[in-house]
Amino acid sequence: MANGEGILLGEMHFADREDTREKLLKQVWTEELNDVFADVAGYYDRANHVASLGMWNWFRNSFLATIELQSGQRALDVCAGTNAVGLAMLRKQPDLQVYAMDRSTAMQEVGRQRAAREGFHIESVIGDVHKLPFPDNHFDVVTLQWASRHLRIMDVAREVHRVLKPGGHFYHCDMLRPGNRTIERLYYAYLRVSLSVTAVLFRSGMAARNCKKYFIDTLSLFYSVEEFSQLLKHTGFDNVQARSLLLGMIGFHRARKPGP
Questions:
Q1: What pTM, to 2 d.p., does this model score?
Q2: CATH architecture of 24-256
Q3: pLDDT in tens, 192-219
Q4: Nearest alpha carbon to residue 224 among 183, 192, 195
Q5: What is the spatial distance between Cα 197 and Cα 214, in angstroms, rounded to a whole number?
Q6: Is 7 helix (H, G, I), strand (E, B) or coil?
Q7: Per-residue pLDDT for 2 more than 70?
C-alpha cells in the first residue's frame, strides 16, 4: 500500500478522490477488514476508551446531543458496530423503530447481546452499506459513525440520501483529517503509539496488528471537516452543519434531505 501521508488530494474532484482512496485501500477493505472487526469485536468499545484517553464517552455523548428524535420515527444506524448509537437513541426515545446495518456479523452479535440485556430490539441487517437494502424515502433519521474512512463514502452518502424521507436528517461522526499539517502529523504520531499500546493491552490478533499502517493511511487520504461538508452538499443534502473537535481530528455533521 502506498504511504498516504505523502499524497495531497485537496484539489481533486470528489469522484477522483474516491477512486484514489479505493485504489490504495481496496485490498484491506475487501480482504482484511472482516477479520479485523471479528478480532476486535469483543473489546472494541473498551479499546476505544483507552485509545481516546478516556474521552470516548464524551465523543459519543457529544455526537448524540446533535441527534433530534421524535416519537415513532424510523431510524437506520449504518455501520452500526456494537449498536452503541442505536441503543443510545432507544434510551432517549424508546418507541423508535431502529435498524442496524453492518458488514461484520461478529460486531453485530455483540450489539445484539447488548440490546437484549437492556430489553431493546434492534433489527439487524448484515451486508454491504454501499447498497442499502431499503426502499426510497423510508427513514426519518440515518446515522453513521466511526466508519466512513473504510468506505467509498460518496456512494454511501448517496444511498443514505435515497433512503431518507424528504426532510429527514443524516447524522455523521468520524475521525477526520485535520486541516493543519502540523496538527495532522502530531495526530498520526499519537495514533501510531496508541494503536500499538491497545494492541498489546487487549492482545489483538495478527489481523488487527497488521492494519496499524492502514488506519493512518485512511485518515491521510480522507477529508477535513469542511471538505466533508462540501461532499454532503455535492451529494444533494442541504442545511449542512458541522462541528469540529480537537482541532479537526474529529468532526460531527448534520445534513438534511431537501423536502417539507
A1: 0.93
A2: 3-Layer(aba) Sandwich (3.40)
A3: 999 999 999 998 999 888 898 999 999 9
A4: 183
A5: 16
A6: coil
A7: no
